Amino acid sequence: MKKPQKVSFGAWKSPITSDLIVSRTITLGEVVLDKQDVYWLEGRPYEKGRNVLVRCTPDGKVTEVIPETYNVRTRIHEYGGGAYIVVEGTVYFCNFSDQRLYKQTADKQFIPLTKENNRRYSDAVMDKERNRLICVSEKHCNSDREPENNIVSVDLNSGEVEILLSGCDFYSSPRVSPDGSKLAWISWNHPNMPWDSTQLWVASINADGSLTDAECIAGGIEESICEPKWSPEGILYFSSDRQGWWNLYRRNKTGTIEPLWEMEAEFSYPHWVFGISKYDFASESEIVCSYTQNGRWYLGTIDTQSKQLQPIEVPYTGISSVKVRNKQVVFVGGSPTEPTAIVQLDLESKETQILKTASEIEIDPGYLSIPEAIAFPTENGLTAYAWYYPPKNKDYTAPEGELPPLLVKSHGGPTSAASATFNLRIQYWTSRGFGYLDVNYGGSTGYGREYRQRLDGNWGIVDVDDCVNAAKYLVRQQKADGTRLAISGGSAGGYTTLAALTFRDTFKAGASYYGVSDLEILARDTHKFESRYLDRLVGKYPEEKAVYEERSPIHFTDRLSCPVIFFQGLEDKVVPPNQAEMMVEAIKAKGIPVAYVSFPEEGHGFRRSENIKRALDGEFYFYSRIFAFKPADDLEEVEIYGI
What we know:
By secondary structure, this protein is of the alpha+beta class. A hairpin with a 2-residue loop joins strand 6 and strand 7.
């Protein structure tokens, strides 16, 4: 065995390059089962971020369903999801460029269903009795009025759109009962987000397709309802956090709501996107479900009669898009050591089959860092959580006594969560000699409603304190160099990053990806879905304008004394480019090293391979200049002002 070379952290040569990551890695999601076929979406950076619909037939053959001129993606709520369904071989999908609904028949004919009417569509279900789709719609008007959200029907012959439900600010999850007589759905109103307070409704569907006798059966203030689904025999199931955790419930035949299995675990996930599926029915008496505890996802079955949970042993720590058919479970699964995959599991034999992986790259385990779950003390005597990835490269060791630089990651949302699934972008850092700390700060999902609500009124405080305390914890453990601490985050995580760099002195550099620098501008200038989000996280605006100013980094650049690099999509409608540009100019004026990399074609989040590569290498290059080490890679330079 070759003896490892002694080389300083950060200067290690790694086989996990940005070119490798973007050219041979895709995203996988939104599993749909139809007859014997399995469908899913592939996000392909090397095709300019196009979402491609593919089908896997029983013989294991995987083929593309939609031609390259189409992109299966909806912009509803700006985050999308739930962009297609398949019914008896016919595909119904939303095309990104015009946001129209299309139908692709079994003989490959493409038929536009809806007109170009400024509507966006998602979360469709088939109403066979009336030959129509029922889906969520968001109509954008050419005025200053916010978009109008509805549940609508789309006639499959004429494409005519009819509004079935209106009056609430938001709708999701229209679900037709098996006999076609009932419709269930979820609604909520400003200033709530769907993980704060929602209502679950049921109405009768008349012969003419209209709805009557609408009844709110669950939900309300301080209760979030997710994923309503009808069982094969017409019993309505759903997830609720009424007891502090998103557990599964049902409305039995007498109209009583009863828990299916009570547990300090989350059986659902915040409704950022449509199309989430964390459970499905194997039969009337058996549910297959995924659930998370302490940041890790598990798979199990629940007997609906005895109401007992039985875990299923699988090697996956991230599980989503769970669908079941004929004792076969298909889901998206990820583990700490293997790329995310479309997995098929036989409920009887418990054998698994990989239908598609997100990457065909085979990496020697000697270059892979395995995450360690850590719990660390934070403010007010509380505990917070993170995943720590130590530096790992079989070819190198650091000089004696040297501690590694540490990159702290603040995830987005901020109600999202860091997971322990395999991520080549993380391994990019650790295989070059960085430690990587993925923080599940207070406000993150997976630890119950109380943990999620730690951030209420405290955004920019609790999240920042937890990221700071996580880094300090590793420094005390002699796992990180306290003089080489960096923090990075995107969107809400970008705000946490900028707040940590401005209001604390722990970090020595940082990277903001489409991050918020001025909370007031965000409150005034963002899309409808999040337009009142800050009411809960910060305070009512403009009544609490002073709080917004106090927590906005843009007003306190005099306190910022360390270098920052900004990455921004110029088509971003969630966090407009002026958020980054104002901060860059203010830092320039101080003479602090700063860099700004913009991408004209990108929105909120980067999808194109060349931009993902540029951002990843650009951030690493930036730290190499700030922390004064020479990268082993030949990186494209980034213009850094003030250095």
